[in-house]
Amino acid sequence: MTPSDPSDPSAPRPLRVAVVGAGPAGIYAADLLTKSREVRDGDVGVSIDIFDRYPSPYGLIRYGVAPDHPRIKGIVNALHRVLDRGDIRFLGNVNFGSDIHFEELRGLYDAVIFATGAVRDADLDIPGVELEGSFGAADFVSWYDGHPDVSREWPLNAREVAIIGNGNVALDVARVLTKDAEDLLATEIPDNVYEGLKSSPVTDVHIFGRRGPAQVKFTPLELRELSHSRGVDIVLYPEGFVFDEGSDEQMRTNNQTRTMVNTLTNWLVEEQDSGAPRRLHLHFLHSPVEILAGDGEDSNKVAGIRFERNELDGRGGVRGTGGFIDYPVQAIYRAVGYFGSQVPGLGFDAARGVVPNEAGRVIDAQSQPIPGVYTTGWIKRGPVGLIGHTKGDALETVGCLLEDRLNLPGPTDPSEDAVTTLLERRGVEYTTWEGWRRLDAHEQSLGENYRRGDPSGVADDRLAQIKRERVKVVPREELVRISRQKDDQ
Question: Which of 431, 465, 480 finishes a domain?
Answer without folding.
Answer: 431
